[in-house]
Request: fold
Amino acid sequence: TTSPRIAVIAGDGIGREVVPPVVELVDTLLRHDGVTARWTTLDWSTERYLATGEYIPPGGLELLAGHDAILLGAVGDPRVPDAVSLGDLLLRIRRHFDQFVNLRPLSSLPGVTMPLRDGAPFDLVVVRENTEGEYADIGGRVHAGRPQEVVVQTSVFTRAGVERLLRFSFQLAARRRGVVTSATKSNALRHSMVFWEEVAADVAKDFPGVEYRHVHIDALAAALVRDPSRFDVIASSNLFGDILADLGAVLMGSIGAAPSGNINPDRSQPSMFEPVHGSAPDIVGRGIASPVGQLLSAVLMLDHLGLADQARRLDGAVRAALASGDAVTPDLGGTADTGGACRAVARVLGAPVP
Ligand code: NAD
Ligand code: IPM
Ligand code: MN
Reply:
Protein backbone atom coordinates (compact mmCIF):
# COMPACT_ATOMS: atom_id res chain seq x y z
CA THR A 1 0.00 0.00 0.00
CA THR A 2 1.48 3.37 -0.94
CA SER A 3 -1.18 5.33 0.93
CA PRO A 4 -2.36 3.21 3.86
CA ARG A 5 -5.61 4.12 5.61
CA ILE A 6 -5.08 3.86 9.36
CA ALA A 7 -7.79 4.31 12.01
CA VAL A 8 -6.47 5.55 15.36
CA ILE A 9 -8.27 4.87 18.65
CA ALA A 10 -6.27 6.26 21.58
CA GLY A 11 -8.96 5.05 24.00
CA ASP A 12 -8.50 5.62 27.73
CA GLY A 13 -5.86 6.42 30.33
CA ILE A 14 -2.26 6.27 29.15
CA GLY A 15 -3.52 5.26 25.69
CA ARG A 16 -4.21 8.99 25.25
CA GLU A 17 -0.63 9.79 26.31
CA VAL A 18 1.30 7.31 24.17
CA VAL A 19 -0.78 7.21 20.97
CA PRO A 20 -0.49 10.85 19.74
CA PRO A 21 3.34 11.06 19.85
CA VAL A 22 3.66 7.62 18.24
CA VAL A 23 1.29 8.59 15.38
CA GLU A 24 3.27 11.81 14.90
CA LEU A 25 6.53 9.86 14.79
CA VAL A 26 5.27 7.21 12.36
CA ASP A 27 3.73 9.87 10.13
CA THR A 28 7.05 11.75 9.98
CA LEU A 29 8.95 8.55 9.20
CA LEU A 30 6.54 7.68 6.37
CA ARG A 31 6.46 11.20 4.88
CA HIS A 32 10.24 11.26 4.79
CA ASP A 33 10.00 8.18 2.55
CA GLY A 34 7.28 9.65 0.37
CA VAL A 35 4.47 7.59 1.91
CA THR A 36 1.34 9.54 2.86
CA ALA A 37 -0.72 7.66 5.43
CA ARG A 38 -4.38 8.66 5.70
CA TRP A 39 -5.12 8.77 9.43
CA THR A 40 -8.66 8.69 10.84
CA THR A 41 -8.68 9.76 14.48
CA LEU A 42 -11.58 8.24 16.43
CA ASP A 43 -12.48 9.44 19.90
CA TRP A 44 -13.92 6.10 21.02
CA SER A 45 -13.35 6.02 24.75
CA THR A 46 -14.96 5.86 28.15
CA GLU A 47 -15.31 9.67 28.07
CA ARG A 48 -17.43 9.31 24.95
CA TYR A 49 -19.37 6.38 26.46
CA LEU A 50 -20.27 8.43 29.53
CA ALA A 51 -21.52 11.21 27.27
CA THR A 52 -23.37 9.12 24.66
CA GLY A 53 -23.93 5.64 26.11
CA GLU A 54 -21.86 4.01 23.36
CA TYR A 55 -18.25 2.99 22.86
CA ILE A 56 -18.68 2.42 19.12
CA PRO A 57 -21.15 4.78 17.43
CA PRO A 58 -23.68 3.49 14.89
CA GLY A 59 -21.87 2.66 11.65
CA GLY A 60 -18.55 2.57 13.49
CA LEU A 61 -17.60 -0.97 12.52
CA GLU A 62 -18.42 -0.21 8.85
CA LEU A 63 -16.19 2.85 9.12
CA LEU A 64 -13.31 0.72 10.46
CA ALA A 65 -13.85 -1.78 7.63
CA GLY A 66 -12.72 0.89 5.18
CA HIS A 67 -9.23 0.99 6.75
CA ASP A 68 -6.10 -1.09 6.21
CA ALA A 69 -5.20 -1.13 9.90
CA ILE A 70 -6.32 0.09 13.31
CA LEU A 71 -3.86 1.48 15.85
CA LEU A 72 -5.28 1.30 19.37
CA GLY A 73 -3.95 2.57 22.70
CA ALA A 74 -5.76 1.07 25.66
CA VAL A 75 -9.29 0.76 27.00
CA GLY A 76 -10.49 0.70 30.61
CA ASP A 77 -11.57 3.33 33.11
CA PRO A 78 -12.38 2.91 36.80
CA ARG A 79 -15.75 4.64 36.25
CA VAL A 80 -17.09 1.80 34.05
CA PRO A 81 -16.95 -1.96 34.72
CA ASP A 82 -14.19 -3.56 32.64
CA ALA A 83 -16.63 -6.16 31.32
CA VAL A 84 -18.57 -3.29 29.68
CA SER A 85 -15.69 -1.18 28.33
CA LEU A 86 -13.55 -4.02 27.04
CA GLY A 87 -16.51 -6.07 25.82
CA ASP A 88 -18.07 -3.17 23.90
CA LEU A 89 -14.90 -1.83 22.31
CA LEU A 90 -11.78 -4.01 22.21
CA LEU A 91 -13.25 -7.52 22.20
CA ARG A 92 -16.02 -6.43 19.84
CA ILE A 93 -13.52 -5.26 17.23
CA ARG A 94 -11.38 -8.42 17.57
CA ARG A 95 -14.44 -10.60 16.98
CA HIS A 96 -16.14 -8.51 14.33
CA PHE A 97 -13.11 -8.55 12.05
CA ASP A 98 -12.29 -12.17 12.90
CA GLN A 99 -8.80 -11.17 14.05
CA PHE A 100 -8.10 -14.71 15.10
CA VAL A 101 -4.37 -14.38 15.70
CA ASN A 102 -3.13 -12.31 18.59
CA LEU A 103 0.56 -11.99 17.79
CA ARG A 104 2.68 -11.03 20.78
CA PRO A 105 6.43 -10.89 20.07
CA LEU A 106 8.49 -10.76 23.25
CA SER A 107 12.20 -10.05 23.13
CA SER A 108 14.88 -8.75 25.46
CA LEU A 109 15.68 -5.04 25.07
CA PRO A 110 19.00 -3.20 25.43
CA GLY A 111 19.54 -0.65 28.17
CA VAL A 112 16.65 -1.66 30.42
CA THR A 113 16.51 -3.26 33.86
CA MET A 114 15.24 -6.81 33.45
CA PRO A 115 13.97 -8.81 36.43
CA LEU A 116 16.04 -11.88 35.48
CA ARG A 117 19.50 -10.52 36.15
CA ASP A 118 21.50 -13.24 34.46
CA GLY A 119 18.99 -14.03 31.76
CA ALA A 120 20.22 -14.75 28.26
CA PRO A 121 18.78 -12.60 25.45
CA PHE A 122 15.50 -14.01 24.16
CA ASP A 123 13.26 -13.58 21.15
CA LEU A 124 9.96 -15.45 21.12
CA VAL A 125 6.43 -14.95 19.84
CA VAL A 126 3.24 -15.88 21.64
CA VAL A 127 0.58 -16.75 19.04
CA ARG A 128 -2.60 -16.44 21.00
CA GLU A 129 -6.00 -17.62 19.72
CA ASN A 130 -8.14 -14.48 19.72
CA THR A 131 -11.79 -15.25 18.96
CA GLU A 132 -12.95 -18.32 20.90
CA GLY A 133 -11.68 -20.62 23.68
CA GLU A 134 -12.14 -19.25 27.18
CA TYR A 135 -13.33 -15.88 25.74
CA ALA A 136 -16.34 -17.43 23.98
CA ASP A 137 -18.67 -15.34 26.17
CA ILE A 138 -21.14 -18.13 26.82
CA GLY A 139 -22.39 -18.77 30.32
CA GLY A 140 -24.94 -17.93 32.92
CA ARG A 141 -25.75 -17.48 36.56
CA VAL A 142 -28.65 -18.72 38.65
CA HIS A 143 -29.69 -18.01 42.26
CA ALA A 144 -27.47 -14.91 42.39
CA GLY A 145 -26.27 -14.20 45.91
CA ARG A 146 -27.97 -17.29 47.40
CA PRO A 147 -26.17 -20.27 48.92
CA GLN A 148 -27.17 -22.49 46.00
CA GLU A 149 -25.76 -20.05 43.45
CA VAL A 150 -24.22 -21.61 40.33
CA VAL A 151 -22.18 -19.84 37.66
CA VAL A 152 -21.15 -21.40 34.36
CA GLN A 153 -18.58 -19.94 31.95
CA THR A 154 -18.11 -22.15 28.90
CA SER A 155 -15.04 -22.44 26.70
CA VAL A 156 -15.53 -23.18 23.03
CA PHE A 157 -12.89 -24.85 20.85
CA THR A 158 -13.74 -25.49 17.20
CA ARG A 159 -11.67 -27.61 14.84
CA ALA A 160 -11.51 -24.79 12.31
CA GLY A 161 -10.55 -22.28 14.99
CA VAL A 162 -7.81 -24.34 16.60
CA GLU A 163 -6.45 -25.58 13.28
CA ARG A 164 -6.06 -22.13 11.70
CA LEU A 165 -4.28 -20.83 14.80
CA LEU A 166 -1.85 -23.76 14.81
CA ARG A 167 -1.25 -23.55 11.08
CA PHE A 168 -0.35 -19.87 11.46
CA SER A 169 2.02 -20.78 14.33
CA PHE A 170 3.83 -23.45 12.31
CA GLN A 171 4.13 -21.18 9.27
CA LEU A 172 5.62 -18.48 11.47
CA ALA A 173 8.05 -20.92 13.11
CA ALA A 174 9.15 -22.15 9.69
CA ARG A 175 10.31 -18.57 8.92
CA ARG A 176 11.98 -18.27 12.35
CA ARG A 177 13.96 -20.85 14.32
CA GLY A 178 11.60 -23.74 13.60
CA VAL A 179 10.22 -24.64 17.03
CA VAL A 180 6.55 -24.59 18.09
CA THR A 181 5.56 -25.11 21.72
CA SER A 182 1.86 -25.51 22.45
CA ALA A 183 0.56 -24.38 25.82
CA THR A 184 -1.88 -27.04 26.94
CA LYS A 185 -3.33 -28.57 30.10
CA SER A 186 -4.57 -31.93 28.87
CA ASN A 187 -4.04 -33.58 32.26
CA ALA A 188 -6.95 -31.63 33.76
CA LEU A 189 -8.89 -30.13 30.82
CA ARG A 190 -9.58 -33.49 29.22
CA HIS A 191 -11.98 -32.19 26.55
CA SER A 192 -10.58 -28.95 25.23
CA MET A 193 -6.88 -29.56 25.67
CA VAL A 194 -6.80 -33.21 24.59
CA PHE A 195 -8.55 -31.99 21.44
CA TRP A 196 -6.03 -29.13 21.06
CA GLU A 197 -3.14 -31.61 21.22
CA GLU A 198 -4.77 -33.87 18.62
CA VAL A 199 -5.26 -31.00 16.18
CA ALA A 200 -1.70 -29.81 16.80
CA ALA A 201 -0.27 -33.27 16.12
CA ASP A 202 -2.20 -33.35 12.82
CA VAL A 203 -1.00 -29.92 11.73
CA ALA A 204 2.58 -30.77 12.76
CA LYS A 205 2.59 -33.56 10.12
CA ASP A 206 2.41 -30.87 7.42
CA PHE A 207 5.55 -29.18 8.80
CA PRO A 208 8.24 -31.85 9.03
CA GLY A 209 10.91 -29.15 9.27
CA VAL A 210 9.41 -27.67 12.43
CA GLU A 211 10.05 -29.20 15.82
CA TYR A 212 6.86 -29.56 17.88
CA ARG A 213 6.25 -30.13 21.56
CA HIS A 214 3.46 -29.41 24.03
CA VAL A 215 3.91 -28.31 27.62
CA HIS A 216 1.24 -27.89 30.30
CA ILE A 217 0.58 -24.23 30.97
CA ASP A 218 1.72 -24.36 34.59
CA ALA A 219 5.06 -25.96 33.73
CA LEU A 220 5.38 -23.63 30.74
CA ALA A 221 5.01 -20.57 32.96
CA ALA A 222 7.80 -21.88 35.17
CA ALA A 223 10.04 -22.76 32.20
CA LEU A 224 9.53 -19.29 30.71
CA VAL A 225 10.75 -17.63 33.89
CA ARG A 226 13.68 -20.02 34.13
CA ASP A 227 14.90 -19.50 30.56
CA PRO A 228 12.84 -17.65 27.93
CA SER A 229 15.66 -18.10 25.38
CA ARG A 230 14.60 -21.74 24.95
CA PHE A 231 11.37 -20.69 23.17
CA ASP A 232 10.63 -19.67 19.61
CA VAL A 233 6.87 -19.76 18.85
CA ILE A 234 4.38 -20.48 21.63
CA ALA A 235 0.89 -21.39 20.36
CA SER A 236 -1.84 -20.97 22.91
CA SER A 237 -5.51 -20.63 23.64
CA ASN A 238 -7.01 -17.21 24.28
CA LEU A 239 -6.65 -17.06 28.09
CA PHE A 240 -3.38 -18.98 28.35
CA GLY A 241 -1.80 -16.62 25.80
CA ASP A 242 -3.14 -13.57 27.62
CA ILE A 243 -1.39 -14.65 30.81
CA LEU A 244 1.85 -15.82 29.16
CA ALA A 245 2.18 -12.51 27.28
CA ASP A 246 2.12 -10.44 30.48
CA LEU A 247 4.63 -12.83 32.02
CA GLY A 248 6.88 -12.51 28.95
CA ALA A 249 6.42 -8.74 28.85
CA VAL A 250 7.68 -8.31 32.37
CA LEU A 251 10.68 -10.50 31.48
CA MET A 252 11.44 -7.84 28.83
CA GLY A 253 11.51 -5.30 31.64
CA SER A 254 7.96 -3.96 31.85
CA ILE A 255 4.51 -4.81 30.67
CA GLY A 256 4.61 -1.35 29.07
CA ALA A 257 7.18 -2.57 26.55
CA ALA A 258 5.37 -5.40 24.76
CA PRO A 259 3.43 -4.99 21.49
CA SER A 260 0.64 -6.98 19.91
CA GLY A 261 -1.15 -7.42 16.62
CA ASN A 262 -4.72 -8.70 16.34
CA ILE A 263 -4.42 -10.18 12.91
CA ASN A 264 -6.78 -11.42 10.27
CA PRO A 265 -4.20 -12.86 7.87
CA ASP A 266 -6.46 -12.84 4.80
CA ARG A 267 -6.37 -9.01 4.77
CA SER A 268 -9.93 -8.61 3.56
CA GLN A 269 -10.58 -7.07 6.97
CA PRO A 270 -8.46 -4.65 9.00
CA SER A 271 -6.05 -5.92 11.63
CA MET A 272 -5.59 -4.02 14.89
CA PHE A 273 -2.32 -3.16 16.63
CA GLU A 274 -2.10 -2.28 20.33
CA PRO A 275 0.33 -2.63 23.22
CA VAL A 276 -0.14 -5.56 25.59
CA HIS A 277 -0.61 -3.19 28.54
CA GLY A 278 -3.82 -1.51 29.66
CA SER A 279 -4.84 2.04 30.53
CA ALA A 280 -2.70 2.09 33.72
CA PRO A 281 -4.95 4.30 35.90
CA ASP A 282 -2.24 4.28 38.60
CA ILE A 283 0.17 6.39 36.51
CA VAL A 284 -2.21 8.29 34.25
CA GLY A 285 -1.55 12.04 33.98
CA ARG A 286 2.05 11.83 35.15
CA GLY A 287 3.60 11.68 31.69
CA ILE A 288 5.81 8.72 32.58
CA ALA A 289 4.13 5.93 30.60
CA SER A 290 6.54 4.03 28.39
CA PRO A 291 5.68 4.47 24.69
CA VAL A 292 7.73 1.36 23.81
CA GLY A 293 4.77 -1.07 23.64
CA GLN A 294 2.91 1.40 21.42
CA LEU A 295 5.97 2.01 19.24
CA LEU A 296 6.65 -1.70 18.75
CA SER A 297 2.94 -2.18 17.96
CA ALA A 298 3.40 0.41 15.20
CA VAL A 299 6.37 -1.68 13.98
CA LEU A 300 4.05 -4.70 13.66
CA MET A 301 1.50 -2.52 11.87
CA LEU A 302 4.03 -1.21 9.34
CA ASP A 303 5.12 -4.77 8.64
CA HIS A 304 1.53 -5.83 8.13
CA LEU A 305 1.01 -2.90 5.71
CA GLY A 306 3.93 -4.08 3.59
CA LEU A 307 6.22 -1.29 4.82
CA ALA A 308 8.90 -3.72 5.96
CA ASP A 309 11.81 -1.31 5.57
CA GLN A 310 10.16 1.39 7.69
CA ALA A 311 9.17 -1.27 10.25
CA ARG A 312 12.77 -2.46 10.54
CA ARG A 313 14.10 1.09 10.90
CA LEU A 314 11.56 2.01 13.57
CA ASP A 315 12.31 -1.18 15.50
CA GLY A 316 16.04 -0.45 15.30
CA ALA A 317 15.51 3.15 16.42
CA VAL A 318 13.48 2.08 19.47
CA ARG A 319 16.24 -0.34 20.50
CA ALA A 320 19.00 2.22 19.88
CA ALA A 321 17.15 4.90 21.86
CA LEU A 322 16.72 2.43 24.73
CA ALA A 323 20.41 1.46 24.56
CA SER A 324 21.37 5.15 24.83
CA GLY A 325 19.26 5.44 27.99
CA ASP A 326 17.27 8.38 26.56
CA ALA A 327 14.11 6.33 26.02
CA VAL A 328 14.18 4.44 29.32
CA THR A 329 11.14 5.35 31.43
CA PRO A 330 10.88 4.60 35.19
CA ASP A 331 9.13 1.23 34.69
CA LEU A 332 12.18 0.10 32.67
CA GLY A 333 14.64 1.47 35.23
CA GLY A 334 15.32 4.95 33.82
CA THR A 335 14.16 8.54 34.20
CA ALA A 336 12.81 9.47 30.74
CA ASP A 337 9.25 10.67 30.32
CA THR A 338 6.87 9.72 27.49
CA GLY A 339 7.68 12.73 25.31
CA GLY A 340 11.43 12.46 25.92
CA ALA A 341 11.42 8.78 24.99
CA CYS A 342 9.61 9.52 21.71
CA ARG A 343 11.98 12.40 20.90
CA ALA A 344 14.95 10.09 21.53
CA VAL A 345 13.56 7.59 19.00
CA ALA A 346 12.92 10.41 16.51
CA ARG A 347 16.52 11.62 16.89
CA VAL A 348 17.84 8.16 16.01
CA LEU A 349 15.60 8.15 12.94
CA GLY A 350 16.91 11.58 12.00
CA ALA A 351 13.37 12.89 11.97
CA PRO A 352 12.88 15.35 14.82
CA VAL A 353 9.40 15.50 16.27
CA PRO A 354 8.07 18.75 17.79
P1 NAD B 1 -2.25 -2.24 33.13
O1 NAD B 1 -1.48 -2.83 32.02
O2 NAD B 1 -3.05 -1.03 32.77
O3 NAD B 1 -1.26 -1.86 34.33
C1 NAD B 1 -0.52 -2.84 35.07
C2 NAD B 1 0.73 -2.18 35.69
O4 NAD B 1 1.68 -1.91 34.65
C3 NAD B 1 0.41 -0.84 36.35
O5 NAD B 1 1.21 -0.69 37.49
C4 NAD B 1 0.83 0.18 35.29
O6 NAD B 1 1.23 1.43 35.81
C5 NAD B 1 1.98 -0.54 34.59
N1 NAD B 1 2.06 -0.13 33.18
C6 NAD B 1 1.24 -0.54 32.18
N2 NAD B 1 1.59 0.04 31.03
C7 NAD B 1 2.63 0.84 31.28
C8 NAD B 1 3.44 1.70 30.48
N3 NAD B 1 3.22 1.86 29.15
N4 NAD B 1 4.46 2.37 31.08
C9 NAD B 1 4.71 2.20 32.39
N5 NAD B 1 3.99 1.41 33.21
C10 NAD B 1 2.96 0.73 32.65
O7 NAD B 1 -3.20 -3.38 33.71
P2 NAD B 1 -4.39 -3.29 34.81
O8 NAD B 1 -4.00 -2.33 35.87
O9 NAD B 1 -4.73 -4.66 35.12
O10 NAD B 1 -5.61 -2.68 34.01
C11 NAD B 1 -5.97 -1.31 34.00
C12 NAD B 1 -7.15 -1.14 33.04
O11 NAD B 1 -6.74 -1.44 31.70
C13 NAD B 1 -8.32 -2.06 33.33
O12 NAD B 1 -9.49 -1.36 33.01
C14 NAD B 1 -8.10 -3.22 32.38
O13 NAD B 1 -9.26 -3.93 32.09
C15 NAD B 1 -7.58 -2.48 31.17
N6 NAD B 1 -6.76 -3.27 30.24
C16 NAD B 1 -6.91 -2.95 28.92
C17 NAD B 1 -6.11 -3.58 27.98
C18 NAD B 1 -6.27 -3.20 26.55
O14 NAD B 1 -6.81 -2.16 26.22
N7 NAD B 1 -5.80 -3.99 25.63
C19 NAD B 1 -5.15 -4.51 28.38
C20 NAD B 1 -5.01 -4.80 29.75
C21 NAD B 1 -5.83 -4.16 30.68
C1 IPM C 1 -5.15 -7.90 26.56
C2 IPM C 1 -6.13 -7.54 27.64
C3 IPM C 1 -7.54 -7.95 27.25
C4 IPM C 1 -7.57 -9.44 27.03
C5 IPM C 1 -8.60 -7.57 28.29
C6 IPM C 1 -8.47 -6.13 28.67
C7 IPM C 1 -9.99 -7.90 27.82
O1 IPM C 1 -5.75 -8.10 28.84
O2 IPM C 1 -5.28 -7.38 25.44
O3 IPM C 1 -4.23 -8.66 26.84
O4 IPM C 1 -7.75 -10.22 27.97
O5 IPM C 1 -7.41 -9.86 25.89
MN1 MN D 1 -3.85 -9.12 28.77
